[in-house]
Amino acid sequence: MKKRTEKQNKKTKQKTIVLIGACALLMGALTGCGSRSSAGQSAQNTDAAGQGEASISQDNSAAKSQEAASDQTLSGSLQLSGSTSMEKLANALCEAFMEKYPDVNASAEFTGSGAGIEAVLSGTVDIGNSSRNLKDEEKEKGAVENIVAIDGIAVCVDPANTVTDLTKEQLTDIYTGKITNWSELGGADEPIVVVGREAGSGTRSAFEELLEIEDACVYANELDSTGAVIAKVASTPGAIGYASLDAIDDSVTAAKLEGVEATAENIKAGSYFLCRPFVMATLGEISEQSELVQAWFDFVMGEEGQRIAADIGLITVE
After folding, report:
1. CB 113 within 8 A of CB 208
2. Burial class (CB in 10 A: 0-12, 13-18, 19+), 219
3. Nearest to 141 by CA among 166, 163, 121, 162
């Protein structure tokens, strides 16, 4: 009886050991499955993250490609016409714009501010250049004033003239014929030759409006371009004229006004009183224009276009 009991106990212990071993194996198998599942999920997450990064990179590349394509696909002709004072600015902008957009042909004619505004109102050009503010009647016809830069008007005399500083009153009296000899201003006994622009010129309109002498000027010569005014003053003893600040060169002397030199810095400071806007007029708002015209104004009013304006001596708009 005792031996039988010992055998039963021995079998019971063996069964217990086997059962414990089986449980251990089962737990190990479950743990292994869990590890494989976590590893698989981690790999899936890594793959998803990689795909997300790749997608963002592709999106950025696509955006850059679309932007580059937009630059190259923009095409057509852009025609500007108007102010002769804006010749240097318009030509520089056209050249840079065509470099940016090789399939675009941008060109400008210089016919005077009034003619430029008439051309844009009639639809014969895309943009009318004006070196003065638009008149109310021009705005009523649909012309929109888009100021792209600020220009100073310099008063110039021939290089031999010793009178190089004028008050506003003296300048007004010269152009209205009240003062006719330089000796009246402390200079040589020499007649004053009053040179100006033709009727319809933006420079003339701005000059006369700023001095409040519209239709009261007494001109010896009325010339049809900025260059012609400077050449006439440079070659004529006793001559005085006015021209866009950026056009003045060493062939003439730029006179001070009220003791202030004609410089961009002084115009910005508000101490030099002869200044006017450079306008690129459109028929209707810019947002109503063609894609090409809108791209032009984005360029002109952007960093590159304003840098060009500054480089030629104009004051940028902000």
Report:
1. no
2. middle
3. 121
Count Cβ atoms below 10 Å from residue 155 Cβ, excluding itself: 24
Segment 120-145 shows an average pLDDT of 97
The total domain count for the chain is 2
User: Among 56-70, 251-265, 295-309, which stretch is predicted with the lowest mean pLDDT?
Assistant: 56-70
Residues spanned by the domain of 240: 78-318
For residue 6, count other CB atoms closer than 10 A to its CB.
9
On whether the CB atoms of residues 219 and 195 are closer than 8 A, the answer is: yes
Q: How many CB atoms lie within 10 A of CB 216?
A: 12
Say if residue 232 is in the same domain as residue 316. yes
What letter does residue 112 receive in the DSSP assignment? -
The encoded tokens of residue 46 equal 């890594």
Instruction: Name the pairing type of β-strands 193-197 and 221-223.
Output: parallel
**Averaged pLDDT for residues 4-10:** 40
Q: Which residue has the tokens 């060009």?
A: 308
Burial class (CB in 10 A: 0-12, 13-18, 19+), 44: exposed
**What is the structure's pLDDT at 71?**
54
Q: Letter for the amino acid at 61? A: S
Q: Indicate whether 41 and 171 sit together in one domain.
A: no
Mean pLDDT for the stretch of residues 204-230: 95
In a shared domain, residues 44 and 127: no
Rounded alpha-carbon distances, angstroms, from residue 235 to 82, 119, 187, 238, 240: 27, 34, 18, 10, 11
Residues 185 and 214 in one domain: yes
Q: Is the torsion defined by CA of 193, 194, 197, 203 positive or negative?
A: positive
Q: Are residues 143 and 23 in the same domain?
A: no
Examine the domain organization and report whether 62 and 138 are in the same domain.
Answer: no
Task: Show the tokens assigned to 161.
Answer: 């003239």
**Residue type for position 148:** V
State the CB neighbour count (10 A cutoff) for residue 221: 17
